[in-house]
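Progress narrative, Year 2. Work on Ribosome-associated translation inhibitor RaiA from Photobacterium frigidiphilum advanced from sequence curation to structure prediction during this period.
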Amino acid sequence: MTLEITGKNIDITPAIRERLEFKFKKLEKFQLPLVNKHVMISKEPSKIFKIEASAAIPGGKIVASAEHNDLFGAITELYQKLERQINKQAHKPAARRASHSDKPVIEEDEVEAVDA
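Result:
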């Protein structure tokens, strides 16, 4: 798994890299291949950590960002946002309204018999 991590005003430690790789590994449970995964971490002057992530999936791209006082809290928040987007994409074909066209059609004779 190749995960590109860029740090702005912060050094990427092995613990940060390990946490991000763990979270992206958990996203694989949706069986959607994530391609070109990129994470950018920056520390703002106001001591807030800002994380932005993007990844390509079949049929589109997912992008999420999170801000938090705690770096690992921001990573968790980012993971939750990515998880919601991937879950939505994974279940999109099942949620299509047109896929319900195979429901049984009631004939007019049956409707009259029910009304009587």
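Residues 4-92 form a domain with the Double Stranded RNA Binding Domain fold (CATH 3.30.160.100). The beta strands are 3-8, 35-43, 49-57, 60-68.
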